[in-house]
Specification:
alpha+beta
């Protein structure tokens, strides 16, 4: 059998195990003193010169020719070490796989699993719930509205935030995010944006080509949502909360539900996220959304005199609306579109078939206002009343809004006035002030060129943090 003896640190030689000698020894003559190194005080060089000399055996077995004094471990040890290394590598791979699938397993069990922290053994390449705003945006953009709500819930919980989903009429959700142990009534600052989208959009390209993320929702407003998620998680401050709502692009039901359902203090400052090109918005236009309905009489299109076309009636009303002069302002110190009332006929429906005179038709019309909605609504109602068989239905309305401008941030980044509408007008509770701020341009939102600049997006969490800190300073 082969006997292995640990060699002490001889004349500066490193600690190693050396294969000193080999001989056949029966079980009866085996002893602990076998193959002791002779002349332990010799230098390393002397030992190397005597590698082939005989080694005495203390049990009286005589001298035997020693095998060569080999450096390093014997073959059996090498194989054992290789086997153990392979087993540890396989175990590491299994643990890494479990780590990467940890939250997916939890999600599979239940979307409402107890709040959990990120497992300590997660490797750096774990990116199911990324920390940075760009990769988080890449996760949010392709998902459906419901998927985004549940994904954001899990993301916030992995950051040890208190997060919860709240139903909104129409099988939708709002998402509330608070610091661990905090109450929404404590919040002095409430970050808010929406995660619903308008239909359509460009082909999704989240590769970062040309320094941009391209696709519906990148700028309006899931990139902004990602930035607010990162901000509230990093600050983890009881005075700062976030609510992400649905329905902003349609009926504003999410914001109305959030403001009525949550016990938000009247002293709160709202920070609403919409594309402002990373400048502080000074004001937004108001909005009036109407449905114009025409009721006709159906008949065979070969005998139109037997019926009445609802589409003809509707076109009559829409034509008059287009010819009407709507309110304008003489003020021109900014974008001209911010100082005039504009009208958009956004959708028309009607008819059943080309060979049937249509019995019903309707159109959705949106006015962007520089004044109170009542003045425009009154004019529309007058025009509709002059066309028999038509009626008007009020969908939503709100006047223009002036926002609070944080002095430090505005001085550094600049001020802008926007011609679009936001959820701020539909916040049903009293609030102290409202700020409108976000990355990206509204001019590409709702288009086939929708995109957001990656550098501007990367800077957004820091800018939101600075605005929040400036607001909190005012509250001290």
């Amino acid at each position: 059998m082969k006997l292995m003896i640990p060699a002490q640190k001889i004349a500066g030689a490193p600690w190693q195990t050396y294969h000193i000698a080999s001989r056949n020894v029966s079980d009866s003559d085996h002893c602990p003193g076998h193959n002791v190194i002779r002349n332990a005080q010799n230098t390393w060089e002397q030992k190397s010169a005597n590698r082939n000399k005989a080694v005495p055996c203390t049990h009286g077995g005589g001298n035997e020719d020693a095998e060569s004094f080999k450096m390093g471990p014997p073959k059996k040890v090498t194989m054992r070490v290789a086997t153990i290394s392979l087993m540890w590598s396989l175990l590491g791979a299994v643990l890494a796989f479990i780590a990467m699938r940890w939250t997916r397993v939890s999600t599979w069990l239940s979307d409402e699993f107890p709040e959990a922290t990120r497992p300590r053994f997660l490797p750096q390449f774990y990116d199911e719930y990324p920390n940075d705003v760009v990769n988080l945006t890449r996760k949010l953009v392709p998902q459906s509205e419901e998927e985004v709500a549940h994904y954001a819930l899990r993301w916030l919980r992995t950051r040890n935030m208190s997060a919860s989903l709240h139903p909104v009429p129409g099988a939708r959700y709002n998402l509330l995010a608070l610091a661990k142990g905090a109450s929404v009534s404590e919040a002095q600052v409430l970050l808010s944006t929406h995660f619903d989208l308008v239909p359509g959009g460009p082909t999704l390209d989240l590769s970062g080509k040309d320094g941009k993320l391209v696709g519906r929702g990148t700028v309006d407003a899931r990139g902004i949502m990602a930035a607010m998620m990162v901000t509230v998680a990093q600050m983890a401050d009881h005075r700062v909360a976030a609510v992400f709502v649905s329905g902003e692009e349609t009926d504003h039901a999410g914001m109305r539900e959030a403001s009525s359902a949550f016990e938000i203090a009247s002293s709160v400052t709202l920070i609403n996220g919409e594309p402002t090109e990373s400048r502080v918005a000074k004001s937004q236009k108001g909005m009036l959304k109407l449905k114009i309905v025409a009721d006709g009489v159906a008949c065979h299109s070969g005998y139109p005199h037997l019926g009445r076309s609802a589409i003809d009636l509707l076109l009559n009303v829409l034509g008059r609306l287009r010819e009407t002069e709507w309110p304008r302002s003489a003020k021109r110190d900014g974008s001209a579109v911010a100082y005039e009332t504009t009208m958009n006929i956004g959708r028309i429906e009607g008819g059943e078939a080309p060979n049937i005179v249509p019995a019903r038709a309707e159109a959705t019309v949106v006015f962007r206002l520089i004044g109170e909605p009542a003045q425009v609504l009154q004019k529309v109602e007058q025009i509709v009343s002059e066309v028999e068989g038509t009626s008007v239905e009020l969908l939503t309305q709100n006047p223009p809004i002036s926002f609070f401008v944080p002095t430090k941030t505005a001085k550094r980044l600049g001020i802008v006035e926007v011609a679009y509408n936001t959820d701020v007008a539909h916040f049903a509770r009293e609030y102290k002030r409202a700020v409108l701020f976000g990355a990206g341009s509204i001019e590409v939102a709702h288009t086939n060129q929708e995109s957001i600049d990656i550098r501007e997006l990367e800077a957004l969490p820091t800018l939101y943090t600075e605005i929040v800190e400036e607001i909190l300073e005012l509250e001290q």
